[in-house]
Write a structure and sequence with these properties.
The chain is α+β, with helices and mostly antiparallel strands. It is built from 4 helices and 4 strands; from the N terminus they run αβββαααβ. A hairpin with an 8-residue loop joins strand 2 and strand 3. The radius of gyration is 19 Å and the shape is globular.
Length: 138
């Protein structure tokens, strides 16, 4: 529930400030190194994720940091989240079979991926396009 003194104008201004100085990577292929990986639990949902940061190693955007939260514990109806985690696990050079063999904790996985290098394609998809409503003649 929003505060009683809630203001959309303030929210929009805060969002603009939060984005200052941030420029997303252009679509393309980049070499990364994981600079930080931790197990993180969100207070509101209770979901536990692998949270990581990775920096671009070379090119015009060298040292730019990307970050993501991967959910290996997603329910079966959200299996795409598990696939994203497994794709990342493979990209950093770890075999998903080791998950079955050693049954590591998320903290152990975070330790294993810290400092690993990988190559990834950055792409952006437009999932929803909202167009102006059309008026019908009355």
């Amino acid at each position: 529930m929003p505060e009683t003194n809630f203001s959309w104008a303030d929210q929009i201004e805060n969002a603009k400030k939060a984005g200052e100085g941030f420029t997303p990577l252009e679509p393309g292929t980049y070499n990364f190194e994981v600079t930080e990986a931790t197990s993180k639990t969100f207070e509101n949902s209770g979901d536990t994720v692998l949270s990581y940061k990775a920096k671009v190693l070379d090119g015009p955007r060298a040292n730019h940091t990307q970050f993501d939260n991967l959910d290996p514990f997603a329910p079966a109806d959200k299996a795409f989240k598990i696939k994203l985690f497994l794709d990342f696990f493979s990209a950093v050079g770890l075999n998903p079979e080791t998950l079955i063999q050693s049954n590591p904790t998320l903290d152990q996985i975070a330790q294993a991926v810290n400092g690993r290098k990988f190559t990834a394609d950055v792409i952006y998809l437009s999932l929803i396009h909202i167009s102006e409503p059309t008026r019908q003649a009355e």
